[in-house]
Amino acid sequence: MNRRALKTLLRSGRFLCFDARAVYLDLKVGLPEDEFPKTKLFDLSTLNLGIFFKEVTLDEDDEVMVSTRVYFPYNDDEVDQGGESTQADPDRIVRVLAKRGAIKRDESLSAHDQKVLDILTKVPTFDPFLLLSQRRELEVERAISANYFEITEADWLLIRRPVLEKISVLVAKANSGNKLDVYKEYVGGEHDTKEDEGKRLMTSAVVDAIWQGEETEGSRSLIRSFRLNEAQTKQFLFAWKGINYYEFQYARHKDLFYQFFEWLGSASSLPRDRESMTDSAMDRFKFRRDRARQLIRATHSTVMRIIKNYNEAFDQLIQHDDPRPFQAFLRDAPKNFLTVGLAIGVLAHTANAWSNVTGKKSKPLKSIDLEPFYDFIIAINGQDFQTPR
Hints:
single chain, alpha+beta, disordered C terminus
């Protein structure tokens, strides 16, 4: 990625880009030069100066593969002026840091740092919600500053509510005495007192266990009732919650997305100085613009397809007593969670970048400003992650 694209990415929001360096430097304000914040993200101070990126690639079987890279700027004051980047796995990072003289070649990262890198690699985007949902694992060894999670209590409750509403509806459905396959397994064995068991399952403790993704008997039974591998309970529940969350995030950003879509389809998406451009230059520009439109449309279709399939499956379960579509949804949730998370992240990055470049104004920009913006759109929307699997 060139410098202008890097600068645009850094300014476009925290979905595919996590500037851990900026948070770390804020924590250091007021501390002596040789003193480090106790609640920094990484034990190794130099590693806290990294900027993390998500990349989407396809493996040899055309399956989606997400990789995480870390970028170390050469210039601490101008991070977009170039630097070194590497895959965010401990061995490669150690080699890069050893080259920079920040660590010995035979040295290894602490257990805490390896755990943090593992989680940053595992989550599909760097959305603060996802990191917050992993906070317990991130803090196995020690506490980390709340500044890295950046979610207020009010936002947390706002996000949590729509997710819990659907979980609660499903738990209530499982206890309603209907003939769903879900019911028998979820409520218990044949000789259990269903009334007592139903009351127990309807407690907030069960709902909270599902929300937290904990492997309690209730949550494992729920997964088992859909004839899925209960050993993957945490993965299924986390992915299900994540898809709910991204549906919420889509609704939250919808106005911005549609303002951007409207601009992209208008004459304002062409350069202001087009009259002075040669025909060949204008043809190249229109090709860029049309390619950007095509990719944005495909990214948006990915989001809508997964959200629609989820809601249709949920409605079939709740309204028509047919658990099969929801079983298929849960089975594919870990993969679809990854896909929809990346797609919404890309849309949000692109729309935020558009807002920064244009100020949400309809006035056309010069080609010198629009060309790198379209290159940026193509670069981050250009992978084939939107292909239905």
